Each structure stands twice: as C-alpha cells, then as structure tokens.
Amino acid sequence: MRLRSPLLAALPLLASACAVGPDYSRPEVALPAAYMGSAAPAAAPADLAHWWDGFDDPLLTRYVTAALAENLDLAQAMARVAQARAQLGSATAALLPSAQVSGQAAAGHQSNQTALGRVASAQPGYDRDGALYETDLDASWEIDLFGGLRRQQEAARAEYQAAAAAAAASRLAVAAQTADTYVVIRGLQARLAVAQAQIDTQQRLLDTVRLQYSKGIAAELQARQAEGALAQVQATVPDLTLALDQAMNAFDVLLATPAGTHRAELATAAPIPAAPTLAGAGTPADLLRRRPDIIVAERKLAASNARIGTAIAEYYPKISLSGLLGTATTAAGGFLTGGAMQAQGGVGLRWRLFDFGRIDAEVAAARGGNSEALAAYRLSVLRATQDVEDSLSAFGNRSRQEAVLAAGEDSLARARAASFAAYKGGVVSLIEVLDADSRLLATRDARIRARAGTAQAAIASFRALGGGWDVRS
C-alpha cells in the first residue's frame, strides 16, 4: 500500500504537471487595530523613510548616511544577498536543459611486447601508430513532472527574498545604532559640562569657606565639608570621560573607521538633538510589510513550505532525456565526413522505489521545519508589536519626565542661590548649601539623561516601526 499511493497520485499529476506538496499562503496573525501607546508631541514630525532627517541635525544626518554606505555589518548582509541570488540562479538553471561540448585528439604507439600487441602484430597490415579525433555535443534534461525542481526554485527564491529583507533589517539597525550612539555622545558631553560647571561652583564655595576660615569666621569642619563635596563632583568626571571615550570608539566602528577617526570632529560639544514625532505610526498590521525582520521570518516560512514539496517529490520517478551528437575518426582528413558522424539518444529513469522509509523521514523533517518556521514567524510578529509599544511608551514617559525635571531644575537653581546668599549672611549652615548643590546637580544630570532618553526612545520607535528602508523594494 505504501507503494500504491504515490503511483495512483502520479496519474493526474502526469497529465497536469502540477507541483506536489502544499501551496503556500501567508498565515493570518491576530493583531489589535491600534497601538496602546502614543508618542508625545515634540519638535516636528519625521518621515519614516528618512527619519534621521527629522532630528534637524546635519552632522547626525551625515553620519547616518556614511554608516549606511560604509558599515561592515551591512556589507556582510549584502554579500549574503549575493550568495542567495546565486543559489536562486542555480535552482532556476536546474529546470533547464544542460549541454556541454567535449573534444579530444590523441595519438598512440602500440607496444609489441604486451598481450594485445602480440595479437595485433600478427595481423596483416598492422600499424603500431594510431590516432583518434573526436568532438561531441552532450545534452541532458530532467523533466520536472512532479514539481520537485520547481519547489526547489520556489524555496531558493524565498530564501533570496529573506536575505534581501535581512539586509534591509541590517540597514535599519545600522542607522538606529549610529543615531543612538551619536545621542549618547552628545548626552555624555552635556553631563560632563554640567559636572564641570558644578566643579566650578563648588570651587568658588570652597574658596569662600577657606577665606572665612582664615578669618576665623568659619570652622575647619566647614572647610573640610566643602573640600569633600568638591571631590565628590570631581570623581564623576573620570567615569563620564571613560563612557564618552567608549561611545566615540563604538561610533568609529559603526562608520567602518579606526578608533579615534572622528574624535576631533565630535570633540566640540553640541546640543542633544530634539526628538521629532512620527508622521504616522500606522497600525500593528502595517508591521507585516514594514518590519524587515518579520519579512525575513515570513519568507523563511515560505521556503520551508516549498521544501515539503521537494521532499514529497522524492516518492515519484524522475525521468531525464539525454542525447549526443558528434564526430569521431582516426584520420584527421575524415573529421567532418558523413562516415565520422555519431549520434545517441536515451531516456533515463531514477526512482527510489525501495527507499520510502527514508523519504518518509525527509518529509517529516521538512514538515517539522515548516512548523518551527511558522512558530518563529508568529513570535516575530508578537515581538515586533511589543517593541513598538515599549518604545512609544518610553518616548511619551521620557518626554514628560524631561519636562518635570526642567521645572524642578529651575526651582532648585533658585533655591541654591537663596541658600548661598543666606549662608553668606549667616542665616543657614554650610550643610544646607551643600545639600542644595547636590540636589541641583542630580536634577540637572537627570534632566540631561531624560532628554537623551527621549531622543533614544524616538530612535527606538522609528526602528520598531520598520522605518529607514523602502517597503516597495
């Protein structure tokens, strides 16, 4: 019965030349109609295709453009696309007849001391010297009656499309990483500037306390407290400088240049770019065509589906045609004469008639791979929606946090000025001034981190939404 089933199924296929195995259709995935999160209002809307322009920072735009042209991760992804394209070409060529031309010219001198030579030398007219001239055109063609080769081509095409989408995903990641690292650099420079300004403030306070101490107005304890507060702020500078060095080195690698290449150009501090809003986040269903990583998973699912057909095709016989046309002669002068012409034709049959156990295993493995690819596709869609929700939530909350901290910083700056004036008038102790300094420094640093976080959340939102590549390609 195991043998009969493929044979009976082969009869209609022979007439229609259909491809065995399941035809592919993209699975439906249940998605909400809209996102829960929404982006907070910011400077200006940005288009998804070139979202980095929305930050209105020419240097950032130039760096992202350079990274997209030079990044080595992206170069590797494009090389994988070329490999997949070549594999598709090979799978397509397998559907077509193949032909080759061969030829030879040989000369020989027969020994009389071998068994063959002794027999031949006893014949009348024996000539020890001989020659052979031959050229042939060989052609063969496997007739794809059951569609196994077409399923291979289908799988190769899907893999090529997956590789192209993976290159788009790499492009998106490179643009986002470049912009994110640029924001990190500007954020660290701003934090260093705040720390340095606080060091100057603490130094002036220390000078005031030392002057009072020298005149006997302030106690030694106050001088030591001011020195300790200054040291605390100074101690933050090495950590920030180290983080800045590491960020600049990582930035150079993204641009495929040695560490330190762009340090001089980036050394001059500049404001953290203001985060733009989205021109239109769309709906979760839009991710199916916008997110290249989802397209990668979907194309791999299509390829795994085609491989089921390739495996099933092994149940059926494979028929091939072959032919030869050429000429062969032992005399150069008769090379193109009718008597030297030779031709041959044939029909080949290959059938794994007693190997159905192995084929069963191959089909089962292909179906298992398809099930795995389906789960991976569904998971990629769910994770994509999570990325968008997380990034939109981060964008909105970071924006609100930045506004709150800006207001708090203004209040604390006035409180610090008032406490210092009160200290000089002898109304409050030095501890209150140092406490005001500490609170102001922490709030300023937090505001800068929130501003950088807002920009980074915007970048993450653009990346999560699949911005930065042409969805029509």
Task: Describe the model.
With 473 residues, the protein is of the alpha+beta class. It has a single domain, classed as Up-down Bundle (Outer membrane efflux proteins (OEP)). Helix content is 61%, strand content 11%. It is built from eleven helices and six strands. The protein has helices at 4-16, 58-70, 72-93, 115-121, 148-214, 220-254, 263-266, 287-290, 292-312, 356-424, 430-464; strands at residues 45-46, 98-109, 129-143, 277-278, 318-329, 341-350. It has a four-stranded antiparallel sheet, with no helix packed on it. A two-stranded parallel ribbon has the order 1-4. Helix 2 crosses helix 5, helix 3 packs antiparallel against helix 5 (148-214) and helix 10 (356-424) packs antiparallel against helix 11. The chain is elongated. The model is unreliable at 1-16 and 39-44 (pLDDT under 50).
The H-and-E topology, N to C, reads as HEHHEHEHHHEHHEEHH
Cα-based radius of gyration, to the nearest Å:
38 Å
* CATH homologous superfamily designation: Outer membrane efflux proteins (OEP)
Quickly count the domains.
1
Helix content: 55-70%
The portion of residues forming beta strands comes to 5-15%
Could you please say which CATH topology applies here?
Answer: Outer membrane efflux proteins (OEP)
Q: What's the pLDDT, averaged over the residues?
A: 86
Quaternary status = single chain
